[in-house]
Amino acid sequence: MAGAAEKKIDIFTFQRAKLLQQYCGDIFYIYENDNQFLCVLADGLGSGHEAHLAAKAVIDTVKKEPEEDLVLLMEHCNQAISGLRGAAVAIIRADFDTKKLSYVGLGNIRFYMVDNHAKLSFPLSTTGFLSGKRQHFKQKVLEFKPGSKFLIHSDGLVLKKVKNYLTSSLCVVKTGHTIERLIPDIPMDDVTFVIGKFPE
């Protein structure tokens, strides 16, 4: 599943389930209003239906309160996933007024951003996964500039020289299709990525 969404930010999304199973253990959610953009990616542990349920619990929680403080949001997601398989989760929020991007992550989700001066930022997630057990979440704040590009993906995507894709002169959709062509038709893991560009 791939496509371009009608959003203020140029976005391309892609998802393919492990071995083309009915249920994908990765789920993403995008929320945008006049002042901010939020994207969350949840990767349920393992694959299949149980992994899907864990990721869905996270996404359903975010959908209820997408403008909540990110650390509190992660705490609520952690509570929601109690008793389920667990999930790696990353959330980004861009504030269009302050040009600040906030990031909170736990587990093997990767996030990269390149500003219009070709500087690559890649805040690392905290080791572990949401499980319902009490955890401490750290929020990192970056500055983005008009035209900055970003990529967030699950560990099913193995991508070398990420900066080359984010500094390419190609539009977001063409860049997304370029990355898509690197993914096997029948992948051995769930694969999800979201690539975007902030307004210039």
Q: Which fold name fills CATH's third level, the topology?
A: Phosphatase 2c, domain 1
**Number of beta-strand segments:** 11
Proportion of strand residues = 25-35%
Structural class: alpha+beta
H and E order: EEEEHHEEEEEEHHE
Residue share in helices?
Answer: 10-25%
Radius of gyration: 16 Å
Organism: Listeria fleischmannii 1991
Protein name: Sigma B dependent indirect negative regulator
Domain PPM-type phosphatase: 8-198
Topology:
Layout: E1 2-5, E2 10-16, E3 26-32, E4 36-44, H1 48-64, H2 70-80, E5 87-95, E6 100-106, E7 110-114, E8 120-121, E9 140-143, E10 149-153, H3 162-166, H4 172-180, E11 191-197
Antiparallel strand pairs: 1-2, 2-11, 3-4, 4-5, 5-6, 6-9, 7-8, 7-10, 10-11
Could you walk me through the main structural features you see in this protein, from its secondary elements to its overall organization?
It comes from Listeria fleischmannii 1991. This is Sigma B dependent indirect negative regulator. Pfam families: SpoIIE. InterPro entries: PPM-type-like_dom_sf (IPR036457), PPM-type_phosphatase-like_dom (IPR001932), Ptase_RsbX (IPR039248). With about 200 residues, the protein is α+β, with helices and mostly antiparallel strands. It has one domain (about 1-195): Phosphatase 2c, domain 1 (4-Layer Sandwich), CATH 3.60.40. It has four helices and eleven strands; from the N terminus they run ββββααββββββααβ. The protein has helices at about 50-65, 70-80, 160-165, 170-180; strands at about 1-5, 10-15, 25-30, 35-45, 85-95, 100-105, 110-115, 120, 140-145, 150-155, 190-195. The protein has a six-stranded antiparallel β-sheet with strand order 1-2-11-10-7-8. β5 and β6 form a beta hairpin. The radius of gyration is 16 Å and the shape is globular. About 45% of the residues are buried.
